[in-house]
Design brief:
Helix content is about 35%, strand content about 10%. By secondary structure, the chain is of the alpha+beta class. Strands 2-1-3 form a 3-stranded antiparallel β-sheet. The longest helix has 18 residues, at about 1-20.
Length: about 80
């Protein structure tokens, strides 16, 4: 019985530790320096500005013209 309680406690702590990564600052989009164009593949990313971008490539394209680039908050729509 003690082993089960210890196991469940450890599992709960690991779960809490895993949730902290979602609170970290967004990550920079991986952009190709030799930009030619973006493929028409819908793979949305959510920017730290709260906007959904159709793909990481589109976010990179828009970041090229901005003074302050938008980071990726999460993969998928906002």
């Amino acid at each position: 019985m003690k082993v089960v309680i210890i196991f469940l406690s450890a599992l709960a702590l690991l779960n809490l530790a895993g949730n902290t990564s979602a609170k970290l600052v967004g990550r920079k989009a991986s952009c190709n320096d030799a930009f030619v164009g973006c493929p028409r593949i819908y793979d949305p990313v959510c920017g730290m500005d709260g906007n959904t971008y159709p793909s990481e490539c589109i976010l990179c394209s828009e970041n090229r013209v901005r003074q302050v680039p938008v980071l990726i908050k999460k993969y998928g729509p906002c």
